[in-house]
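Collaborator request log, item 7. Partner lab (contact: R.S.) asked for a structural prediction of 7-methyl-GTP pyrophosphatase to inform their binding assays.
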Amino acid sequence: MDEPRPALILGSTSPYRRELLERLRQPFSVIRPDVDETPADGEAPDALAMRLALAKARAAAATARTQHADAIVIGSDQVADLDGQPLGKPGTHERATQQLQQMRGRTVRFHTAVSVLRPSTGFERTLMATVTARFRPLQDEEIARYLAAEQPYDCAGSAKAEALGITLLEAIESDDPTALIGLPLIRTCALLREAGLPLP
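Returned to partner:
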């Protein structure tokens, strides 16, 4: 007799991560992780992404513990990296404009970390996918048109590459293509299998 499948929980309220996880055709629930995303002094962007992904997974797992004793929990975080400095979600039109002006003609690395936990077995692992994106030498008018159309104020570095943001770029390099959208599915699948969830 097959063992019951563990509950799958996404520790994120990001609609982009939710849409990506739906591609795996596994039922899952969503828990908002209560995590302070403020970088520590001098914290490198990739270290920040790794720390926050794990913190989000742990926070969601703690919330889910009473209802789902054998849950597998996913946490993820993305940090844009310009010359070693983290670029977060802009939040406002003015900040998004500043970010894109900083990035024009430059290469930006997007670090997307994913953590998978299964507290009942002690499984806990985090992997990183880094996407290198080369931005075109954008004109102010192009930035203004893009922001008016896309309003990517909840996206790290203001770059919503799965939509109109692709027009801002000259090239993208990655071995896990969905990482730029917010969840590296190749690495996520590897971790889910390790945690005991058969895929496909």
